[in-house]
Amino acid sequence: MRIVVALGGNALLRRGEPLTAAVQRTNVRLAALALADLARDHEIIVAHGNGPQVGLLALQGASYDPQKPWPLDVLGAETDGMIGYLIEQELMNALPKGSRCATLLSRVEVDPKDPAFGAPSKPIGPVYTEKEAALAASNHGWQMVQEATGGMRRIVPSPMPLRIIGLDAIKVLLDAEHIVICAGGGGIPVIRNTSGDMEGVEAVIDKDRTSALLALGLNADALLLLTDVPAVYRDFGAPNQTAISEITPSKLGNLDLPPGSMGPKVAAAVAFTTASGKLAGIGQLTDARAIIEGRAGTRIPEEKPKARQGATDETFAEQQGVSDLRGKQ
Fold first, then answer.
1. Cα–Cα distance between 203 and 189 in angstroms, integer?
2. Which of 166, 199, 275, 292 has the most CB atoms at less than 10 Å from its CB?
């Protein structure tokens, strides 16, 4: 099978752990073992999150010059290189000799008229005091939001991915039997300006939505969304919570799930399965093979596709699944 594997933030940093190079390398080594096990029998493409790393680089940049923050597209590119390097190196160590792997930076086009630009919703970066937040908002024009645990954070738009630029290069590498690491952090967000040129924007694209787009563009047989939770749960956090082992896209889409955690994964899984008629799975990183084989996690089974199978167009504009993704934003 050709499987797009989207690694959650736990691939590099578990909850409560310090964001150090040593901790990240140790966690990536464990992730690489699970990926290598899956790669023994399947062709895999690896996408990953970058939330904590972007925050760290933002802090490092602020220590150099607080008045001139680095653009988010540049920070995203930097994290893609760092995380991709760590995954590639540990994955190559875990794979048999002669295996091939390549890391690509992925620009992802978004619509400058996407409604998300008028309603920022994605918290990023460090936690500020109210005074610091007011100063940052005044100096940089940032929008800030109150954190549940106290303090303020910057919020930025999270637009829908439209097109993965460089998808052909990914296909060439797959044809050459490389494991490809790409679309890190949802991709580097770019728009086409009025002159037709590409330019970066201050936004963060949801990595699971981009992973669904990637899986559709590559005609993947499965989309695997891996996190630190064993499955999708009914009544998550309640005493009567129950894990869902298998559920249809329509029933899964009707579940009331937190928008900042499991919600985007479910939206991406439903959109992929609905558009392709193929398998999506959600669960723990260490259960990657077991999810594919139906022994763990939550599986969203194959159904009759709404879009043409074998679609290779890069855009969601020609994929029926776009409305499913956009509706769950």
1. 6
2. 275
Instruction: Please report, for residues 14, 94, 119, 197, 205, the alpha-carbon distance to residue 30 in angstroms, rounded to integers and kept in the order given.
Output: 12, 10, 37, 41, 26
Quick check: 198 pLDDT over 90?
Answer: yes
Joined tokens for residue 196 = 């037709």
H-helix or E-strand spanning residue 217: helix 207-217
What would the two tokens of residue 310 be? 């074998």
97 in catalytic set: no
Q: Count the alpha carbons within 13 Å of 26 in the hemisphere toward its beta carbon.
A: 9
With a CB cutoff of 8 Å and minimum separation 6, the contacts of 133 are 144, 151, 152, 153
Is 139 known to be catalytic?
Answer: no
| Cβ-Cβ contacts under 8 Å for 204 (sequence gap 6 or more) | 54, 72, 76, 122, 124, 156, 157, 158, 185, 186, 189
Q: Is 217 a catalytic residue?
A: no
Q: How far is CA 291 from CA 119, 215, 265, in A?
A: 35, 17, 15
The first and second tokens of residue 205, run together, are 């694209």
Active-site residue flag, 9 = yes
What does the alpha-carbon distance between residue 243 and residue 232 come to, in Å, rounded to a whole number? 6
CA–CA dist 112, 263 (Å, integer): 24
- H or E element in which residue 226 lies: strand 222-227
Nearest to 6 by CA among 196, 209, 145, 144: 209
- Asked whether residue 48 carries a pLDDT value surpassing 70, the answer given is yes
**Catalytic residue from among 27, 122, 125, 185:** 122
Calculate the alpha carbon distances from 270 to 50, 182, 236, 290, 298 in Å: 23, 22, 19, 20, 12
Report pLDDT digits (tens) over 122-179: 887 777 888 888 888 888 888 888 887 788 888 889 999 999 999 999 999 999 999 9
